[in-house]
Amino acid sequence: MLGVFKYNDKLGRRLVVILQGYPCAYGKCTFCPFALEQTLHPAKLLETNRRIIGEALRVKNEWHPRRIAIFNGGSLHELPLTVLEELKPLARGVVFEVEERSEYVTLDSIRHLLDFYNPDKLVIRIGFENIEEWVREKVLAKGMPDSELHRIRDLIAKVRELGLPVEIWTYVLFGMEGIPEDTVARSVREFKRIFDGVIAIRYRRYVPTHPKPVPVSKELALILERETDLVDWGGDQWVIAGKEGSAPG
After folding, report:
1. pLDDT the model gives residue 244
2. Multiple choice CATH, 3-232, 2.60.40.10, 3.50.50.60, 3.20.20.70, 3.40.50.300
3. 207: enclosing H helix or E strand
4. Helix axes 107-117, 146-162, angle to 10 degrees
């Protein structure tokens, strides 16, 4: 699902740019399919991402989105400096969203991203996925213990105190074997007290060895639609390891 995608939804008029990345340095999450699209070849990565960024710039100039989100199947900090530099024009004049593992998110790294990209606002998304440590560590193998969640909670308080144009959001994963629905609902409630925004992501199985998807109750669906900033139910365009996408009309 590499490419450029346009949306106009609860988050407003926004552009999602999915770049090719190197293999995630952590690479242990039990549910992540993005290794299928990653590469070990620098020349291929640069060529692919220049093409995607060029398309994103064209769409930005024609469509004028308010938000632009950058994803690379890992953390922004794992992309080469050349690619990070080429993203600068996309960040100007918009809410610029990036995805990071929690260990990359510090006050220094936040200040560096603000100086580097100078967006109207910076949004950093972190995939804590569930409030329960046992779900994160035993079911999802996230490598994000409660101590890290508490550190990010304190960092968010510091960012607010300093008045930085930064928000830190998190994901809640649902619809996967081993994740009880009651922990999903509890995660939404607790994360709303900690983070600036919460996005619910429905699990999709792309690799046969990954956990199985499970049905989602109507009760949980209603909670997620009502209580989160956005629910990503998935869609036909999210084809992992398929042809590179382009912005749909």
Report:
1. 37
2. 3.20.20.70
3. none
4. 50
Q: Which neighbouring-strand residues pair with 6?
A: 15
- The amino acid occupying position 27 is G
d(CA 148, CA 166): 19
Nearest 5°: the CA angle 238, 200, 55 is 40
Q: Retrieve residue 197's tokens.
A: 């925004």
Residue keyed to tokens 């790294």: 109
Determine the length of the chain. 249
Residue type, 133: E
pLDDT one-digit tens code per residue, 10-28: 999 999 999 999 999 999 9
**What's the mean pLDDT in 25-51?**
95
Residues 116, 143 contacting (CB under 8 angstroms): no
Whole-model pTM: value is 0.94
Any idea where the domains of the chain sit in the sequence?
Answer: 3-232
Cross-strand partners of 12: 9
SS3 36: helix
Q: Are 97 and 70 in contact (CB under 8 A)?
A: yes
CA 214 distance to own-chain centroid: 22
> CB within 8 A of 134, min separation 6: which ones?
none
DSSP 106-135: -HHHHHHHHHHH--SEEEEEEEEE-S-HHI
Q: How many CB atoms lie within 10 A of CB 82?
A: 12
Q: Which residue has the higher pLDDT, 234 or 226?
A: 226
Nearest to 90 by CA among 109, 71, 110: 71
| 79 phi/psi in degrees, rounded to 5 | -80, 150
**Beta strand pairing call for 121-129 and 166-174:** parallel
Structure-token pair, residue 190: 């607790």
Q: What is the pLDDT of residue 235?
A: 67
